[in-house]
Amino acid sequence: MVNVQTEILIRRPRSEVADYAGNPDNAPRWYENIHSAQRLTAGPIDVGSKVAFTAKFLGRDLSYTYEFVEYVPDEKVVMRTAQGPFPMQTTYTWEEVSGGTRMTLGNTGKPSGFSKLAGLLMAPMIRRETRKDLQNLKSILEAGEATGTGQASHSA
């Protein structure tokens, strides 16, 4: 089992952090290893929305599809792989705190077969990568570079 939780304080309002980070169109801008994100469902992001990602991990190109299984605007997003090489769930939470927003990024997965052995090595690598990704996100948002990047639209 892989279970990695990382968090960071971003000195921006919660709604701004959640809009930017929760919008999969922005993922290639702040995730170092994600090269593309393509929405497979029309309309605003909501439960049931699907997004295809291409990424590089352990020197290999990976393609996988995430499905949004929980969506609470400005509070929480939970995505699971609908298909792909390694069953994974990614959770974002945003909490208003003094000085800005605490964002937590969690990755959990249960590898099987060959991936089971790789899973033992994956947790420290995922932790290191997510720390870098959250630092990238913090830099983008605190520098004000997130404007005009296609903020996610929310449905109530």
Annotation keywords:
alpha+beta; Alpha-D-Glucose-1,6-Bisphosphate, Chain A, domain 4; 156 residues
Amino- and carboxy-terminal Cα gap = 35 Å
How would you spell out the order of helices and strands?
EHHEEEEEEH
> CATH fold name, please?
Alpha-D-Glucose-1,6-Bisphosphate, Chain A, domain 4
Large-scale geometry = globular
| Strand order in space, largest sheet | 1-7-6-5-4-3-2
Uncertain regions spanning at least 5 consecutive residues: 148-156
What CATH architecture label applies?
2-Layer Sandwich
Largest sheet: 7 strands, antiparallel
- Averaged pLDDT: 87
In CATH terms, the superfamily is START domain
Q: What's the CATH C level?
A: Alpha Beta
**Rg computed from alpha carbons, rounded to a whole number of angstroms:** 15 Å
Q: Give the class from helix and strand content and strand pairing.
A: alpha+beta
The number of helical segments is 3
The overall strand count is 7
Explain what this protein looks like in three dimensions:
- With 156 residues, this protein is α+β, with helices and mostly antiparallel strands.
- It has a single domain (2-142), classed as START domain (Alpha-D-Glucose-1,6-Bisphosphate, Chain A, domain 4, 2-Layer Sandwich).
- The protein contains three helices and seven strands.
- The chain has helices at 14-21, 27-30, 114-142, and strands spanning 2-10, 34-39, 50-57, 60-72, 76-83, 88-97, 100-109.
- A seven-stranded antiparallel β-sheet has the order 1-7-6-5-4-3-2.
- It is globular, with a radius of gyration of 15 Å.
Strand-helix topology:
Layout (H helix, E strand, L loop, with lengths): L1 E9 L3 H8 L5 H4 L3 E6 L10 E8 L2 E13 L3 E8 L4 E10 L2 E10 L4 H29 L14
Antiparallel strand pairs: 1-7, 2-3, 3-4, 4-5, 5-6, 6-7
